[in-house]
Structures are given as structure tokens and as C-alpha cells.
């Protein structure tokens, strides 16, 4: 590692590899500004349409798309990719998001014709290999979690969360317990937890977090009543801590006739080491992108399978795979009391292939090692930064992510947002900011198991250097940041409230001489 003229560390993560060099790139115009509507990038013969097959739904106006040549289109998207930060170009320390390396082997397997080219409406007899893969993936997920059933069809973590809570609701209704209309949700939960419960018509009752960042079993017991349907608890929790009283909480919830929904977003911290079913959970979604390295972000395609306990297994949604004679079949019609269908087809086959490839290439012991390495990396960052950064919950070691608050910045005039923006200038994507809400000015960092010690050391060196600058009064380094990114600091609040979602050609304004 070298030092720049201001005495700040540079090296891995700085310059082009991490994103700093992109400030030297020219602005990339929109496709509408590159092409025009009068020309096409492809020479096509004039076609005389003799039969209208559109039943009156043909366009009444021009398509209004810019015409570009193939090189123009390709170069546009390559230039955009150079402006973007990605896990392939640098560390992505987002807490609670697990931006880990996506092995290229996974991509190669997902592109095999027998998986990439199939259609959900094909005859089942022609997709036996795909069904076998789904059955194998289901076996791994149930084995790793110690559960009795799995629904593969949910398309994302929040969708899986909805599926699990719908199974709980169906189970209560089947038992004549429809009066259970309350769901307990700790204050440190992911925001989707109370949203999912409310979407299903439940009333949400918050459970406060203790001073050490965990949930108190006695507080759960005090909140239980005959109206409680379930508790939705994340473990490891959003503060990056393992809930030490999770078994006592599960026992109390079951004793009250309710179910235990576990948010499995952070399963990557314990996979192969702890089976959630042994802790007493009844339902848990698993984010394949977080735990099993399938692509993350961009709105999909995603997959959020849900594992279910023996008590909830009869309420799993269709379709699901089961043996039928010498082959396999997709069960398409639910039992009378079952949940039914939550999506049109079986889910995202490409994600299934990638996830199972990751599992098979690691093996059970390798998955456990990946979880341990994720925890080790988070605690390494914790140990290196703890003397300068402030730990809101110092009593427990971190799991897969480490949480700091902003009290170390007190009096500096630098906020968590300022600090994160300055990190962009050093070539790193910022950590998660202001989440979880139970910690003021939160900085949540998750290195994952993918990063080497060299990368972690450079990240820590940069973090410490930024902290020194903030405390030394170098406020401009933060309030002006980022200065070396493709875009300077944006008004994010205004952008969110008044977004410009369409492009219009600039008006031809009259010149002064006219």
C-alpha cells in the first residue's frame, strides 16, 4: 500500500479497480441522445403488410425508439458498466445484504441447455432432470435447517416471508384459531417483517430490544396472549448478534399456541453450524442470493424458499416435487386445508441451479467453513476498528456483520452520511447506513467470507484514516464527497420525492440574435 500526497492510504480499492478512476470517464448520454428516430442500425427491407394479425391492437403512433448500430449499443452498456460499482470490481461491505462473490461455475451450470432452455409449461416427462435438481435442492435446504418441508416457489425474501406467514395463518384457521390476529415483532427486525404481518391483516405488537441488542425472553412472555398468532424474529438478528435466548422464546411461543417465524436473511452466518429447526422455528425463508451466492440486486430474478416445520408442512403451497412411480412429478393441486398457490409456476430455475451448484461444490463441511469465515471476517473488522469506532453492543462478538454507531464522530460536524460518501472516494461502496433503527447513526458492515485479509486490512486502513480526518477537523473531505465518483453528491431526498422517469428532447430555444 502506498500513500498519496495528503498522507492518505491508496492501493487496492482506490483508482480504477475500485471506482475512483471512473471520474475521468466522460458522461454517458442516454440512448435517446446517441441515436435518432429517423434511422435504424440495421438495414431492413420495406415490408408490405397484407394481413393484420393484431386484432385492432396495432400501434397508432411511431415506436419512438432511437436507432443504433450494434457497436453503438454495445459500447453504451460497456461504458455504463465502467461507471458502476460491482462485487467484481471491489469490496461491497453492505451490512445485512451479503454482497458475496458469485462463482462463475454457478453461471456455467445455469446456462446448460437442459436448465436454461426449459419452459414451465413443458410436459413433466420432459423435465425430469430439472425436477430432480429441485428435489435435491429441497433436500439440502431441509437438511441444513432441520425442517420437514420446503416451498421453493417464492421469488424473493419478502415473498418467502409472506409465504411463511400465510402458512401460519392457514394453520390457525384449520385449527379454528382465526381469532389470533396479533404478531409480535422485535424493534430490531427487518422492515419487511411488520409490513408482511400488516399486509395479511395482523396487528403488529413491537417487542423492545434490550440494551445489549438482543430480545429478552421475559418481554416475549409478557406480550403473549390467546390472540397472538406468531412471533417474527431474525436470528442472527439485524444488529449482527445471535439471539442467546432463542430456545426459551420458541418454547414460550409454542406454549401459548402460536408459531415461530424466523427471518432467515442472515442464515449465511450459521449454515452448516446451527440448524434453526433445532432451535424451535416453524417457518423460515432463505435468501438464496445471500446464503448460496446467487446474483443479488436489480430487482431479480430472485428466489426465497421457505422451510417449514412438521407442524406447518401440511400447509405448504403448491407446486412442489414428489416421487411418482419411477419418476418425479409437480404437485399442482393443494389439499383442502393447504395454502394453495402463491405464484404461477415453480419459481426461478436459474437460481435453483446456481444455489445447488454452490452447495455441491462446497459440500456440507465447506458451507460450514464459509459461515465460520464470514463470522471471522466480521470480527476481524470489529477488532481492528473497535479502539476508534464506537460499538453500541460490546457485550457479544459479532456474527456475519459488525455494527458501529456515530458517537465517535461527536463534535466533528461529520455525519454517518458524510462518512459513507467519503468512503466512495476511497474506492469502496459504503456500508449500510442508519440501519438498524435502534442504533443512532448506524454503520453496519458485512465483509462476507469472500474477502481476503489483504482486502480487509486495506478497508480497515481506509476507515481508520477517515476517522482520523474527521476528528482532526478535515470536514471538507466529507461534506464535499464524493469528488472522484462519476457523479458528485446528489440530493437523494429530492430525487426520491420528485424523480424524473421520462426523457424529453431538449427544446430549441431562440437565440439572442433572432
UniProtKB/TrEMBL annotation:
Region listing for Disordered, in residue ranges = 1-28, 473-514
Q: Which residues form a coiled coil?
A: none
Q: Which UniProt keywords apply?
A: Oxidoreductase, Pyridoxal phosphate
**InterPro entries from the entry?**
Aminotrans_V_dom, GDC-P_C, GDC_P, PyrdxlP-dep_Trfase, PyrdxlP-dep_Trfase_major, PyrdxlP-dep_Trfase_small
Q: Which residues form the Aminotransferase class V domain?
A: 176-297
- Supply one GO molecular-function term: pyridoxal phosphate binding
**Presence of keyword Oxidoreductase:** yes
Q: Per the record, what are the reactions this protein catalyses?
A: N(6)-[(R)-lipoyl]-L-lysyl-[glycine-cleavage complex H protein] + glycine + H(+) = N(6)-[(R)-S(8)-aminomethyldihydrolipoyl]-L-lysyl-[glycine-cleavage complex H protein] + CO2
Q: Does the keyword Chaperone apply?
A: no
Q: What is its EC number?
A: 1.4.4.2
Query: Where along the chain is composition biased (Gly residues)?
Result: 10-21
**Boundaries of each Glycine dehydrogenase C-terminal domain copy?**
371-472
Specify the superkingdom.
Bacteria
One Gene Ontology cellular component annotation held by this UniProt entry: cytosol
Name the Gene Ontology biological process terms: glycine decarboxylation via glycine cleavage system
Q: What does this protein do?
A: The glycine cleavage system catalyzes the degradation of glycine. The P protein binds the alpha-amino group of glycine through its pyridoxal phosphate cofactor; CO(2) is released and the remaining methylamine moiety is then transferred to the lipoamide cofactor of the H protein.
Name the UniProt record assigns to this protein? glycine dehydrogenase (aminomethyl-transferring)
Task: Tell me what organism the protein belongs to.
Answer: Devosia enhydra
